[in-house]
Amino acid sequence: MTGGGRLGLVRDEAALYLLLVRAAFRSAAQYRVSLVMYTLVEMAGAALDLATIGIIFAHLPDLDGFALSEVAFLYGSSALAFALAEALVGPLDQLGWQIKDGRMDATLTRPVSVLVQCATMDFSPQRLGRLAQPTAVFAVSLATLPVDWSPGRVAILPMMVLCGTMISISLAVGVAAVLFVAPDASVAIAAVRQGSALATQYPLTIYGRRMAMLLTFVFPVAFVNWQPALFVLGRPDPFGLPGFTGLLSPLVALASCLAAGIAWSAGIRHYRGEGG
Amino acid sequence: MTLSSDASVIDVSEVTRTFVLRRRTGWMRRERSDVHAVRDLSFSVRAGEMVGYLGPNGAGKSTTIKMLVGILTPSAGRLRVAGLDPSRQRLRLARRIGVVFGQRSALWSDLPLRDSFDLIQRIYRIPPARYRQNLDEFIQLLDLASFIDTPVRQLSLGQRMRGSVTAAFLPEPEIVYLDEPTIGLDVVSKAAVRSFLSRTNRESGTTILLTTHDMTDVEQLCRRVMVIDHGRLGFDGTLDELRTRIGGVRTLRVDLAEPQPAMTIEGARVVRVDGARQWLEFSAQDSAAPLVSAVAARYPLVDLAVGEPAIEDIVARLYTTDRLPAVPPSRTDPDPTHPPSPVR
Ligand SMILES: Nc1ncnc2c1ncn2[C@@H]1O[C@H](COP(=O)(O)OP(=O)(O)OP(=O)(O)O)[C@@H](O)[C@H]1O
Ligand SMILES: [Mg+2]
């Protein structure tokens, strides 16, 4: 260890993260052809996504009382947060395979945290490429929102993206922790992750009250974009929650990181491997 | 041994590890059963020891090693390795130990072996000069030069194993666990790995615990052996002690001038007669000399050979006697048609 204390530990893990990302890039470069192919597929997918959104917006000038630019803002901020989370930690549902084929044993022998190793294991340039589309949608929505940009509202934006990313990482880590005890659940875990990303792409009002409360208080993805967005847009909460709720995102983000950390280490403690 | 007990680097006391298995037995019905992989295990290892950890398949060897690394949390009992609690302080401990799992490589499969080693240097922060010196030495000792620039996934089993051993020892760990390090290796690779292990143990004082099903590994490397079966420690001592305790018998083969009925000699019994040749079994603790002179005094002796019990037989016997406690360790009424243990 170069530095003492918790801060030193975080810095060490960050250095290891970058080291392993570089190693993963070098590994990916071993398969040049598939790298190029994946990148092309990825670009086609992104273009298709954009086209879909365009078509939806062309036919739905307004969704549950939200204007096109507002829906784009909700979609862009959610997609950006989830894409950032995935760029940083990757699809953690892979963990199940790793446990089942025994690679996890080796992972647990190295002096690098399991999360950093899993996050960097299949790091590829595509993971960064997936940031392009959400960034574009988010930027365009900002340019077209009919919002009076007070310094307060502007300051909310980076917080929104940062907290959204933290919440979405926590969600990925928290549900992936289940895989340590139930490595077969990979598919279910992927569904939860993608479902929560999907759920936040539209105004929560379309899901009805009960679902909206679930997404606010149980899986708090409402704080990824919906709540702070209401604040930015200057709209009252359709479900009657107080106006400052949107400002609670940092607290929710910290709390979910904590909860995810606890779940993750409990998962590792209950890891039992595959024998042999 | 004059070393005091606080020189021990591994301390295991009354450790138990249970796996709960849930089997589906019907619609919504599940049956629970417990597998006791390790039960009430206690032992300690002093710094610088090289210990062979033996046992039949499913005995609990890998489970023990995984607990010592901190991969598995014990269900009960206490573990200390280098003063740390492995499962709670796994990351800190990881910097001080090395692990080789025979079946599974910890190397980066898409990178050339050399890049894996470079990564290990960065992760463990091995001083560059030290790293280069060690790597050069290991390349030579384990004969890595011909494949060090090959991606790990393209290496043969034996090449990958030598790479894994190198990776485990590069950071100069205090303790190294090897779970079947010679599995699937050819004779030359086995010899290279063995001499590497004994050299490192001797010169760097690295504590080594290894499991194996190859008794030559044990004979050549380990002064101390521990035998585990059904999760319990059945034996802990030197190889010679294991021989006397379990393999209690040696064989004397005598060739007489002409066929004779089975001899009657005190301290030995005839287990087989074949023409003029007879086989006698006697206790491994006894010297063969008095027996030979007793035979020579009473019978026309032409030739003789003394057979040591093979270590494989000893261990096999230990496993079976542990499993079937009703059968006494040495049979009093041997089947005369049953061939004696091989005479070497
Ligand atoms: N993850 C697991 N889940 C359930 N049972 C397990 C698990 N790991 C090990 N076991 C059981 O624990 C017992 C001990 O297994 P272990 O792998 O420690 O044996 P071993 O001595 O290493 O055997 P081998 O010589 O075959 O490698 C076995 O009965 C095995 O089935
Ligand atoms: Mg094993």
Q: Mind summarizing the main beta sheet of chain A?
A: 2 strands, antiparallel
What value does the Rg of chain B take, in angstroms?
25 Å
**Spatial order of the strands in the main sheet of chain B?**
5-6-7-3-8-9
The general outline of chain A is globular
Number of domains of chain A: 1
Trace the largest sheet of chain A across and list its strands. Answer: 1-2
Descriptive terms for the model:
heterodimer; A: 276 residues; mainly alpha; two-stranded antiparallel sheet; B: 344 residues; alpha/beta; Rossmann fold; Alpha-Beta Plaits; 10 helices; 13 strands; disordered N terminus; binds adenosine-5'-triphosphate; binds magnesium ion
Describe the protein's architecture and organization.
The complex is a heterodimer of chains A (276) and B (344). Chain A is mainly alpha-helical. Chain A has one domain (5-270). Helix content of chain A is 70%, strand content 1%. Chain A has 13 helices and 2 strands; from the N terminus they run H-H-E-E-H-H-H-H-H-H-H-H-H-H-H. Chain A has helices at 5-29, 32-59, 68-89, 95-100, 103-109, 114-121, 125-129, 132-144, 151-176, 186-199, 209-218, 226-233, 249-269; strands at residues 62-63, 66-67. In chain A, a hairpin with a 2-residue loop joins strand 1 (62-63) and strand 2. In chain A, helix 3 runs antiparallel to helix 8 and helix 3 (68-89) crosses helix 9 (151-176). In chain B, strands 5-6-7-3-8-9 form a 6-stranded mixed beta sheet, with helices on both faces. The model of chain B is unreliable at 1-5 and 323-344 (pLDDT under 50). In chain B, a hairpin with a 2-residue loop joins strand 11 and strand 12 (277-283). With 344 residues, chain B is an alpha/beta fold. Chain B has 10 helices and 13 strands. The relative contact order of chain B is 0.12. The longest helix of chain B has 18 residues, at 187-204. Chain B has helices at 61-69, 90-94, 113-124, 128-141, 157-169, 187-204, 215-221, 239-245, 288-298, 311-323; strands spanning 8-26, 29-46, 50-54, 76-81, 97-101, 175-179, 207-211, 224-229, 232-238, 249-256, 268-274, 277-283, 301-307. Chain B folds into 2 domains: 5-237, P-loop containing nucleotide triphosphate hydrolases (Rossmann fold), CATH 3.40.50.300; 247-323, Alpha-Beta Plaits, CATH 3.30.70. The structure holds adenosine-5'-triphosphate and magnesium ion. Adenosine-5'-triphosphate sits between chains B (19, 21, 35, 37, 55, 57-63) and A (272-276).
